[in-house]
Amino acid sequence: QVQLVESGGGSVQAGGSLRLSCAAFGSAWRSYCMAWFRQVPGKEREEVATIDSNGSTTYADSVKGRFTISKESDKNTLYLQMHSLKPEDTAMYYCAADSTCTGRVNYWGQGTQVTVSS
Prior knowledge:
It is built from no helices and 11 strands.
């Protein structure tokens, strides 16, 4: 069993930065593929970035070069560093864990809101 708790969301002006954190409870998460998703009301949840157990990362085209996903296993924490934020980055951001790295999320956090004003 893995529990995920996000923090770090907030309101920021366009061009600003935020760092999201996801505290993971349950050591099994260290072998999982982890990801950040985001969702705007009325739209499907979008995968933003992923990181596997070896530290390999992937990013959505819309955030490449601006967002960085990372993790600190000894602190049981996943991060999403976001720079050069745009109003279109406004969304609820969710931390997710995929135990088999097949794209099927087993565990979701409760979400943290990011609002970027122009």
